[in-house]
């Protein structure tokens, strides 16, 4: 039986190419899908490290989902990823560290967990944008 | 004329809507933004004690996602060398996905290697 394939090559590339990078879409390869996305607003306690916040993902049939997330201080215009510092609005220099750290994002079968440090002596409002992929 | 396959999410008009976020499938090789759907090559779970090389045979650096089971049933998304002193990270070369664990205790890593060349 002949295999049925749906594929769309990049402009200028042949649809008969064997290189997966030549395609916008190829039905022979699983593509990543956003199963769920959302935002979560949190307030970091002052001068406290290792603060964890959770969010139910309601995707138990998919067992433990693939997650990724980005954080943004409400006072800033840029986001920062896990394993990264925030960078102050202005005056940031190469190698400088912010005072809020997004340590990690992780998940189990029920929840997504976000962990932060806050070196500031005041509370910090942060909005998290998360994506569950599959 | 470009080739297009689009499936709109409920509530959106596939013929008029231009926002890719409003589609479950958005494929258009005539789009100036050149949206590409990343394509999965392989995924697996391995126990990593210190350094484990996963050969990908692509001869370029592919997009990868890696997660570590930091406690029973809890999986953490990994990046490059960790700034907070934790012991789990990964690197990618033109031959291998390199899984690193300096904790001294073996744990499970789940990895996803995609065909998509990031260089």
Task: Write up what this structure looks like.
The complex is a heterodimer of chains A (134) and B (119). Chain A is mainly beta. Helices cover 0% and strands 47% of the residues of chain A. Chain A has no helices and nine strands. Chain A has a four-stranded antiparallel sheet, with no helix packed on it. Chain A has a three-stranded antiparallel sheet with strand order 3-9-5, with no helix packed on it. The model of chain A has no long low-confidence stretch (mean pLDDT 85). Chain B has two domains: 4-38, no CATH class; 40-117, Immunoglobulin-like. Helices cover 0% and strands 51% of the residues of chain B. Chain B contains no helices and nine strands. The model of chain B has no long low-confidence stretch (mean pLDDT 88). At the A-B interface, strand 2, strand 5, strand 6 and strand 7 of A face strand 2, strand 5, strand 6 and strand 9 of B.
Helix content of chain B: under 10%
Coarse structural class of chain B = mainly beta
Elements of chain B, N to C (H/E):
EEEEEEEEE
User: What is the CATH T-level topology of the largest domain in chain A?
Assistant: Immunoglobulin-like
Largest sheet of chain B: 4 strands, antiparallel
The CATH topology of the largest domain in chain B is: Immunoglobulin-like
CATH architecture of the largest domain in chain B: Sandwich
Radius of gyration of chain B: 18 Å
Rg result of chain A: 20 Å
What's the CATH C level of the largest domain in chain A? Mainly Beta
Strand proportion of chain B:
over 45%
What percent of residues of chain A are in strands?
over 45%
Task: Output the strand order for the largest sheet of chain A.
Answer: 4-8-7-6
CATH class of the largest domain in chain B: Mainly Beta
- C-alpha end-to-end distance of chain B: 28 Å
Largest sheet composition of chain A: 4 strands, antiparallel
**Multimeric organization:** heterodimer
Structural class of chain A: mainly beta
Cα end-to-end separation of chain A: 29 Å
